[in-house]
Amino acid sequence: MKKALIVAGGWDGHEPKQTSEVFSKILSENGFETEVSFSLDSFENADYLKTLDLIVPHWTMGTISSTAVKNVCAAVASGVGIAGCHGGMCDSFRESTEWQFMTGSQWVAHPGNAGITYEVNFNHSSASPLTEGLSDFSLTSEQYYIHCDPCVNVLATTRFAVTDFNENSSNGVVTVPVIYTKYWGKGKVYYISVGHVAAVWDIPQAREAIRRGFIWAAK
């Protein structure tokens, strides 16, 4: 049985407890033995992390020790997968460029905050099993504008419209990744930028996308 570690915490607005429960259920239904931790101390044991098949971080902002970051990066480089969503993976530990380098992006803005209705468009030209059969979907939530590593493989995107509340609109309509994959050493990295609150995972396409992401990323 594959082993997954969910480490949840940080800013409560992203519902770390509720989201960890959703993720734990998805993982258990797909044959994972899952541990849920609400402490970053779980990242301090380098040997333990390398026994895992998958790490699922859901920790928004906060601070992390340099040892913990190095341990997670080393575990992923050794072949342990990492997969996560929204601010829980790519707005974690803003001072840690090493974390950002490994995970592949950093949140920088969500113009309009949580009241934006936007569409997620799958990149079916990639012919990826991660997106096969999934249809585009809309949601009303935070639309994440992320700065992204140029090496990522983009599987879904969203378009930011020209609006009077987004000063970046002076550059016109832009397309920003929502789902991507990349590699870190021997490990696989999966990220999806939706997931502001746990209810987002009631959307069938979103839930299926992250389910596939967990399975794909696992060692």
Give a brief description:
The protein contains six helices and eleven strands.
Shape estimate:
globular
CATH homologous superfamily placement: Class I glutamine amidotransferase (GATase) domain
Mean pLDDT: 97
CATH-defined topology: Rossmann fold
Helices, by number, come to: 6
Keywords:
single chain, 219 residues, alpha/beta, Rossmann fold, nine-stranded mixed sheet, two-stranded antiparallel sheet, 6 helices
What does this structure look like?
This protein is α/β, with parallel strands linked by helices. It has a single domain (2-217), classed as Class I glutamine amidotransferase (GATase) domain (Rossmann fold). The chain contains 6 helices and 11 strands. The protein has helices at residues 16-29, 46-49, 66-78, 86-90, 97-103, 204-217, and strands at 2-10, 32-37, 54-60, 81-85, 105-109, 116-122, 137-141, 145-148, 153-160, 174-184, 187-192. Strands 2-1-3-4-11-10-9-6-7 form a 9-stranded mixed sheet, sandwiched between helices. The chain starts with a strand and ends with a helix.
Topology:
Blueprint: E1 2-10, H1 16-29, E2 32-37, H2 46-49, E3 54-60, H3 66-78, E4 81-85, H4 86-90, H5 97-103, E5 105-109, E6 116-122, E7 137-141, E8 145-148, E9 153-160, E10 174-184, E11 187-192, H6 204-217
Parallel strand pairs: 1-2, 1-3, 3-4, 4-11
Antiparallel strand pairs: 5-8, 6-7, 6-9, 9-10, 10-11
